[in-house]
Each structure stands twice: as C-alpha cells, then as structure tokens.
Amino acid sequence: MGIDETCATENNPWSIISSASTNSTLAGVLAAFLIAAIAVLFAKEHEAYVQTMALFASAIVILALDSYLFSHITGIEPKVLLSEGEVLVDDTYLNACARAWTQAMPASGMLATGGVALIAGLSWMLAIHGSTARPIQPHLATLGGGLISVVIITTTLLLTATTIQYLELLYQDNVNIWVKVSMWLGVATAIAYCVYTIWDRTTNIRETLVAAQKATEERAEAARKEAVRAEAARKEAVRAEAARNEAARAEAARKKAKNWAVARKWAEHKESRVEVNVAVTEVSEANATASEADTTASEADTTVSKASATDFTLDLGKLKAATALIAILAAAGPIFAGLLVHFNETWAAEPACGILTIALVTGWILPIVISICISHSVPNGRLNRPVLPPGNSSSGFPDEMTRGRRSSPRMPTGPANRTQP
Fold this sequence. Notes:
Layout: H1 16-41, H2 47-74, H3 94-132, H4 138-170, H5 177-257, H6 262-310, E1 312-315, H7 319-339, H8 353-375, E2 380-383
Antiparallel strand pairs: 1-2
C-alpha cells in the first residue's frame, strides 16, 4: 500500500492531517456560537430552555477540546531520516500516519457529537417557540425534528465511512468485506431507530400543538360571540329606556291637560317616576352586564393563551443520559489521544487490540449511542387533560375560562332602589 507524507494512500487520496486544521476551526466556531446561544437563553424562563442550556453547555466543552485535538493532529509530520544507502518504501510513513488517524478518531467523534447536540438544541428551541408563540406554530416542531434527523443521518454515515478508512489504513486494505457489511448494517439499524423515534415524538408534539391551537381559536370565537350578545342586549336596553321615557312624558302631559285632582295627579306623577327609575336601573345594569361580558372575553383570551402554553408538557426524555455521555466522551477523547505518545512507534504495524477498541468506541460507537439518546430527547408534547368543545364545564382548561358566563342579560323586575334626580 503506497502512502505519502500527508497520509494519503492510493485507494484513499485524502489527507487526515491537511483537513485537521479546517476541522479545528469549525469546532471552535461552533463552540463560540453555543456560547452566544447560552447568553440568550439566560434571559428565558421556560423550563425547557434551561434543559436546552444544559445540553449546550456540555456541547461547548466537547467542541472546545475537539478544536485542540484537531490542531494537535496538524502538528504531526510523517518524516523519515534515511541513512546512507536506505530508500523509501511504500509503508515508510505508516507508523506516523496510523498515529494521526488514531488521534483523529476521537476527534471526529467529538466533532460529530457536538454538531448533533447543537442542532438538537436548536430544534428544541424551535419547538418551545412554536408552543409559546401567538398564534401557536405547530410546523416549527416538525421543522426541528426534520433538522435533527438530517444531522444524525449525515454525521453517522460520515463517521462510519471514516472508521472504515481508518481500518483500511491500519490493515493496509485487507479489511474483511463482512466486517464492512456488518458495520453498515448496524449503522442503518441505528439510523432507522433514531429517525423513527424522532418522527414519533415530533408527531406527538405537533398533534398537541394543533389541539391547543384549535382550542384557543374555539375559546376566542366563543368570547367574541358572548361580547356581541352583550352589546346587542345593551343597545336593546337603551332603546327600551328611550321608549319608556317618552311614554312617561306623554302620560304626564296628558294628565296635566285633563286637570285631574291633586291627589290623583300626585299618585300618577309618583307612578311615572317609579317607571322611569326602573328604566334607568335596567339600563345601568345592562351596561354593567356588557362591561362584565367584555372583561370576561378579555380574560378568556388571556386565559386561553396561558392554557395553550401550559396545558401540555415538553418531555425531553433521556437528556440527562445524553449530557452524561457527552461529558464522558469529552474526557475520554483527549486522554486517549494524549496517552498515544507513550506507546511504541511500531505498534501500528500490528495494531494493538486495546488501542483499536478505544479508538472505535470514542470515534464511532459512543457518538452513535449519544445520537440515539438525543433522538429520545426530542420534545414529546402530550396534553395533561383532554381538550373539550367550548362551553363544556369539564373542559381541560382552567375555570377562569368558563367563570362569569351568562346566557343573555335579563331586565330586572323589582322596585327601584333610588329616585330620579
């Protein structure tokens, strides 16, 4: 197998050393972006934002350390000092390149994990914003689930391809075909499981947001109808008041024109005052009823707004497991890469089982496990109680939404409590 000083081979003309500097810059930029995102999240009060901040914090650590690991790889220069009469052979740079590739395994796994954690946090923020926005935006949760699915699929496939290239370098293109087939089948199973989990949880939260949005619209419509009925009742009461006043004035004029007896006039005059007073009281109570209906509609809109945001929970699942595994990988990767310098220079000729196992675990297996845990942490919204049609006393929304409801304002029939000015 021919290999040059950049660790590019005949079958794989790609240099892990030359690409390390770019990967180091990418990891540093992502870490800086996460720092800015956490600064924004400090101003948020939603519980899910706090959990998202925990994921971002662990991703910052792993990306910052990953930037250092990739920069360390760029310092490897596979050079050989030849004595007189010695010539270069095909595998002259094998030992140094094997060391570079072994260090690149945990670095690649850490970069992929940091990227998945970053996009997962952004998808959670989209779902949270969609649940608290007015009006509710269910499509944001779907968008977040789609983004995290794409990132998990892409990073897992790239890590698998990198791992196979690493094995081909160590074993000089003599990797059994069934090993490759087994790796790809395992990766396909893991990807299918992650995508199904994300799809299921995203569908649940979307249905939850759609139900909350529908309930909000129904409650708002009921409040508007209540306000219209109250306004109609108030106008009817005003018209009745005007009619009674006109009738009272006409009756008083007619009674005065006939010159009735003083006692009879006084009695009829008193009766007229009582009727007018009753009309004034009716109008006053009608106005109060309309004002109460307007207040009830306003409170209903406010209460519906709060209910749609708090009547369901964002279950973030195995977030603690994901953050713990990210912390383990962030610690194991740099330690493993640092210990490689103490091994014999010729170990790559016959790969040590322990070193190979750690490289595969930190660069391939553990990042896939973290992706599975993160797929279980995608927001999964479920309603705490069923959403029933408006007007049902057993509605899942708080009592304030049905408190103060009346069919229609009724005119009082009792005597007046105050005299006409």
